[in-house]
């Protein structure tokens, strides 16, 4: 079956460091991958979308990469801040959007 | 303001009771989705609809039902057949060619069993 997986359940880092989150997919090749942020008790909010023919996408302190050989997307937050603490979800869409389980990021001051 | 509205924010269900969660959007989106989220877990797809009067089952449709009579509305009924309904329910919408379009989410409904 087609799967999208986020390997790390939780990630703790120090303020100012770069956070790197991983999203792996198996048994299919998505044309796009999306990343969302979710705060406790709230709905996810869209952050970035990357196409399979794009190696990298940036938005302010955020960077997403897409490696079709490794079947993996990496999500980076540079110069992390405590306000970046949240759960980050990757998702793929074949007209039925499926999400990974998410990685809970905690940035400590 | 354009957006997607879920109500109520909190809902309690008695044993054997059906309850309906409301989802309304004024974004003129064709596609709408329902997800269930359990504590510390990701989003699991219950049902989705790409167009009015049509919908498809997701991964965990058993014990749930939906309707899509209007473009703006996609209500979810949690039936008595759903034995473990306690969860956070999220509704979302996107443009019809959702393969490259982002989802907009509502603020969610927390359903608990009395």
Report on the architecture of this protein.
The complex is a heterodimer of chains A (109) and B (114). Chain A is mainly beta. Chain A is 0% helix and 56% strand. Chain A contains no helices and eleven strands. In chain A, strands 2, 4, 5, 9, 10 and 11 form a six-stranded mixed beta sheet that branches. In chain A, strands 1-3-8-7-6 form a five-stranded antiparallel beta sheet, with no helix packed on it. Chain A is globular and about 40 Å long. With 114 residues, chain B is mainly beta. Chain B contains no helices and eleven strands. Chain B is globular and about 40 Å long. Chain B starts with a strand and ends with a strand. The model of chain B has no long low-confidence stretch (mean pLDDT 92). Classes of the chains: A mainly beta (109), B mainly beta (114). The A-B interface holds A 6, 9, 31-32, 34, 36, 41-46, 49, 51, 89, 91, 93-102 and B 31, 33, 35, 40-43, 45, 48, 50, 56, 58, 88, 90, 92, 94, 98-108, 110.
Mean pLDDT of chain B: 92
**How would a textbook summarize the main sheet of chain A?**
6 strands, mixed
The number of distinct helices of chain B, counting runs of at least 4 residues, comes to 0
User: Based on CA inertia axes, which overall geometry of chain B fits?
Assistant: globular
User: What is the number of helical segments of chain A per DSSP (H or I, 4+ residues)?
Assistant: 0
State which percent range the strand residues of chain A make up. Answer: over 45%
Q: Which quaternary structure do these chains form?
A: heterodimer
The total count of strands of chain A amounts to 11
**Tell me, what's the shape of chain A?**
globular
Structural class of chain A: mainly beta
- SSE string of chain A, helices as H and strands as E: EEEEEEEEEEE
Largest interface summary: A-B, 26 and 28 residues
Radius of gyration of chain B: 13 Å
Structural class of chain B: mainly beta
* Strand composition percent of chain B: over 45%
**Main sheet characteristics of chain B:** 7 strands, mixed
Number of strands of chain B: 11
Distance linking N and C termini of chain A: 41 Å
One letter per element, helices H and strands E, the order of chain B comes to EEEEEEEEEEE
Helix content of chain B: under 10%
Whole-number radius of gyration of chain A? Answer: 13 Å
């Amino acid at each position: 079956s087609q799967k999208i997986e986020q390997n790390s359940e939780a990630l703790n880092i120090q303020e100012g460091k770069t956070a790197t989150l991983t999203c792996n997919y198996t048994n299919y090749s998505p044309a796009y991958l999306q990343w969302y942020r979710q705060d406790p008790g709230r709905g996810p909010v869209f952050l970035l979308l990357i196409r399979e023919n794009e190696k990298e996408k940036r938005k302010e302190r955020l960077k997403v990469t897409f490696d079709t050989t490794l079947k993996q997307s990496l999500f980076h937050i540079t110069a992390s801040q405590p306000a970046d603490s949240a759960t980050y979800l990757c998702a793929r869409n074949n007209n039925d959007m499926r999400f990974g389980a998410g990685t809970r990021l905690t940035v400590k001051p | 303001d354009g957006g997607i509205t879920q109500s109520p924010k909190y809902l309690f269900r008695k044993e054997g009771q059906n309850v309906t969660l409301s989802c309304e959007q004024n974004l003129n989106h064709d596609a709408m989705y329902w997800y269930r989220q359990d504590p510390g877990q990701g989003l699991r797809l219950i049902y989705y609809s790409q167009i009015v009067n049509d919908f498809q089952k997701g991964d965990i449709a058993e014990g749930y039902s939906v309707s899509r009579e209007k473009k703006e509305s996609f209500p979810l009924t949690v039936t008595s057949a759903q034995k473990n309904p306690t969860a956070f329910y999220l509704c979302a919408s996107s443009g019809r060619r959702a393969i490259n379009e982002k989802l907009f989410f509502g603020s969610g409904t927390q359903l608990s069993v009395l």
